[in-house]
């Protein structure tokens, strides 16, 4: 049995976690390599994509908040933020109620790059989904909310 926090149902080793992990890994790898045809990978590394996605959802995060939410060392996040500022993807701004602190926000360039990346990925996924039968597409559509809940739970577990 897998250990869980108090009050959480325990799951057995046959809960599908291994299979799900393997599929997620394969999906990320396949999508990352196939989308390179439409969107040069080197132009926007995955760590930067994840920061842009986070800042689109939660504008004005501080470096420490980004580090905590992405489970990364603050100095690593600071280095990534410096690169992204240099590339014009984000800007640093003073925090209104604490002039010593800074927050980061997307620039129009950053939003455009994120939109381009998202569209390239959506095109690839749509092409792949079109090659599946109706039952498989329906199963994926039904699974998406549960997968979103799983992702949120993983974030909550920290």
From TrEMBL:
Keyword Repeat attached: no
SMART domains with a match to the protein in the record: HTH_MARR
Superkingdom classification of source: Bacteria
UniProt keyword Transcription, yes or no: yes
Cited SUPFAM superfamilies: Winged helix' DNA-binding domain
PROSITE patterns the UniProt entry points to: HTH_MARR_1, HTH_MARR_2
Residue ranges annotated for the HTH marR-type domain, each copy included: 17-156
Name of the protein described by the UniProt record: HTH marR-type domain-containing protein
Organism: Gordonia cholesterolivorans
